[in-house]
Design a protein that fits this description.
globular
């Protein structure tokens, strides 16, 4: 081995310390998910008593089967899936299109449009004006209230714009010389080359849509059929907390205590179910995610 490649004692110590740190950090990140899972498959009485810590006991899968009997949970799951798929797809497409347009020097007012988009990252009117605006657009108690407000995401547009600017200009110029229009160039050349950055913002969008529940709670108050899965989880969490407080005060009967216990277990199970889709999606996007985030890094 060449001298310049030999590792010194200090190098080995540093590698051991950093390796140990990242192993511990990884375990710290993974443990909450593992803890949730073992509590969903363990004996419910032991879970309620807080006796499940590192290993499952009394393993069963009845809690997952019981979710099928929750009347409104299937519909909430369906709404969350529709919202995530449609919302992410339209957001990626609109971000790609706007990101491409603001790279074209021939676009009228290109710099002003781009700066206006950037300003919205730092300044907004607040929750109440946002709600009034959504209400005047007729998007309350409407499924499209999940989709339309999230179409334009300034940070994603910046990433796409920066990525497109890193592509060779000769590709577009040669296509224009051959008679292609802007739409043809965008759909046939730009979009295929932007797969890494589009996969990156797709992960951002999918996680955001899947985990969101504030807009469901605010905008869909009169339409329970449009509540998302995360919103239902919040309802179960709130119900469990309220019953738990009542139990501590000794003001509920045995039937209410049983209901509270079942809601607690249901809450943990639903939380685990909401995590699984994101855990399944990320490994397939990882190879694009890393490359796209680096190449599309914000540089002004």
């Amino acid at each position: 081995m060449p001298t310049y490649l030999k590792r010194t004692f200090g190098d080995r110590v540093f590698s051991a310390i950093t390796g140990s740190f990242f192993v511990i950090f990884t375990l710290m990140c993974a443990f909450p998910i593992y803890y949730l899972f073992i509590n969903t498959i363990s004996d419910n009485a032991l879970v309620t008593a807080g006796q499940i810590n590192l290993f499952p006991q009394g393993i069963h899968f009845d809690n997952y089967i019981a979710l099928l009997n929750v009347s409104d949970l299937f519909n909430a799951t369906k709404i969350s899936i529709y919202r995530t798929v449609i919302g992410t797809s339209t957001m990626v497409l609109s971000s790609a299109l706007v990101g491409y347009l603001v790279t074209q020097n021939k676009m009228l007012g290109r710099k002003y449009v781009y700066r206006f988009i950037i300003i919205t990252m730092y300044f907004n009117a607040g929750l109440i004006p946002w709600y009034l605006n959504i209400m005047m657009l007729g998007l309350t108690n409407n499924f499209w209230g999940y989709i339309i407000p999230s179409l334009v995401q300034p940070f994603n547009i910046i990433l796409v714009k920066t990525y497109i600017e890193s592509l060779p200009k000769e590709l577009e110029e040669s296509a224009f010389i051959d008679g292609a229009g802007y739409f043809t160039v965008f759909s046939s050349i730009i979009l295929p080359l932007c797969k890494p950055i589009l996969a990156t913002i797709a992960v951002f969008g999918a996680v955001g849509h899947w985990n969101a529940f504030i807009d469901s709670m605010i905008l869909m108050q009169d339409t329970p059929s449009l509540h998302t899965l995360q919103h239902k989880l919040w309802i179960y969490l709130d119900t469990s907390s309220n019953l738990g407080n009542l139990m501590q005060g000794g003001s509920v009967d045995e039937a209410a205590i049983e209901a509270a216990l079942s809601i607690r277990v249901l809450r943990i199970t639903v939380a685990m179910v909401t995590i699984i889709p994101i855990l399944m999606v990320y490994p397939f996007m990882q190879r694009y995610f890393q490359k796209g985030l680096m190449l599309g890094a914000v540089k002004g």
